[in-house]
Every structure is written in C-alpha cells, then in structure tokens.
Amino acid sequence: MYAARGLRWLARDEHNAWLHLAASGIVIIAGLALHVSREDWRWLVVAIALVWVAEAINTAIEELCDRICTDFDPSIGRVKDLAAGGVLAASLAAAAISLLTLVPRLLQRLA
Ligand SMILES: Nc1ncnc2c1ncn2[C@@H]1O[C@H](COP(=O)(O)OP(=O)(O)OP(=O)(O)O)[C@@H](O)[C@H]1O
Q1: Number of domains in the chain
Q2: In this structure, what CATH number is given to the domain that contains residue 82?
Q3: 80 C-alpha vs ligand 1 centroid, how far in Å?
Q4: Exposed e or buried b for every residue in 15-51, given b needs 16+ CB within 10 A?
C-alpha cells in the first residue's frame, strides 16, 4: 500500500521521526501505566497523530523543494521554514495535550 510505504520511509529516513517515535512510545507507555480513561486516550491519540501528520507533510514539502531546486533560493528556504514551523507548532501542542492529560493522572496516583 502506497500510504503505508510513505510512513515506512518517514520512520526510516527522517531523523526527526525517531524523536517522534520515542515521544509517541513514551506517551503510550505512560497512558497504559496510568490507566488513563477512554476520554483521555482520545486526546493522546490526537496528540500523537498531530505530530506525525505535520512531520509527514513537512517531509513531503522538503522532498519536493529539493527536487525542484538544488541551488540556494530564499523562497525555497521560506517554504521549508514554514513547513518546519508547522511541525514545531504541532509538537508544542502535542506536548501540552499530553502533559495536561497525563500529569493530573500521575498526581492522582501519587496522592
Ligand atoms: N535550497 C535552499 N535554499 C534556501 N534555504 C534552504 C534551502 N534548503 C534548505 N534551506 C534552509 O535550511 C533549512 C534546513 O533545510 P533542510 O532541507 O536541511 O531540512 P532538514 O534539516 O532536513 O529539516 P528538518 O529538521 O525539518 O527535517 C531550511 O529550513 C531552510 O531554512
């Protein structure tokens, strides 16, 4: 399947994907360990998916930019920076969602 092949490339070739993979794994393990509710799992799934979607789009844009322009071009630089900014925004939002979901559960467990 072409879509699955895209995700395989992403996980294999993108150095940032390893960070996302590690972060996703930590969130899933924490969710399991803290027995979060079904409602909370919805938020964690959204957080994880948000980052992967942003990274996939960013990687596709980078590939396309490198294909159409091998020289230094300020416009290409701007396009890449914008796409990378999307990943940063998604990652910050995902971190906030994960902390807002997991920390109260952790404090509950510790109390
Ligand atoms: N052809 C270009 N012309 C101008 N600036 C460029 C060009 N290619 C890359 N850049 C600049 O270098 C930055 C890094 O680009 P690069 O393609 O190396 O992405 P990357 O390091 O793989 O990014 P990421 O960590 O998001 O995967 C871009 O955000 C952009 O500012």
Answers
A1: 1
A2: 1.10.287.3610
A3: 6
A4: eebeebeebbeebeebbeebebeeebeebbeebbebb
Q: Ligand 1, from 78, 80, 82: best to mutate by most atoms within 8 Å of Cβ?
A: 80
For 36-93, the pLDDT digits (tens) are 999 999 999 999 999 999 999 999 999 999 999 999 999 999 999 999 999 999 999 9
Question: Is the Cβ atom of 84 under 6 angstroms away from ligand 1?
Answer: yes
Atom in ligand 1 nearest the alpha carbon of residue 65: 1
Question: Which range marks the domain in which residue 28 is found?
Answer: 2-110
What's the CA gap between 108 and 32, in Å, rounded? 15
Q: What's the CA-to-centroid distance between 59 and ligand 1, angstroms?
A: 11
Q: So what's the ipTM on this one? A: 0.90
